[in-house]
Amino acid sequence: xxxxxxxIYYPNYQNxxxxxxxxxxxxxxxxxxxxxxxxxxxxEKLLDxxxxxxxxxxxxxxxxxxIAERPQNELYVLSALVQLISYLRAGENGDYGILLxxxxxxxxxxxxVDLLCKEVNLRYxxxxxxxxxxxxxxxxxxLNNLPEWDYSLLAELKMTKEVYxxxxxxxxxxxxxxxxxx
Length: 182
Fold this sequence. Notes:
The protein contains 9 helices and 3 strands; from the N terminus they run βααααααββααα. By secondary structure, the chain is mainly alpha-helical. The chain has a 3-stranded antiparallel beta sheet.
């Protein structure tokens, strides 16, 4: 298992009332077509999402509210979510299966948010590191890769299109369990 990214820092994940928030503009995480998307790397986005999701941030509710305020950006939000899932599953090569779901309108934003949260929870790890130069502890974060998806095996199974789509809606741990029983 290779580490996607390991980072030590203390981002601002809370606002003045101690509510969890994105440390950068929400567009940096949720709109793949805007300039803010380019302001952070995909790994930084995933580490920030990892912290938020594992600390109780309701990403599903946040995304629903975000789209309600900007319904014209719905496709960009879905694209951003799918890119993040794809990166977690297959790195820079991308995950053909999840991209296919998006292309064929087989995954909703709600399903994509749920799947992203599951994939992040499978990989995100953190611990606090005391620094001699600061009273505030830093966070050491990691996103670890799980074994990559075996597309050649899936092709050999000759699944129906519906079954194929359902496979790619599974989180990686469930996929691995099912593939190991074949």
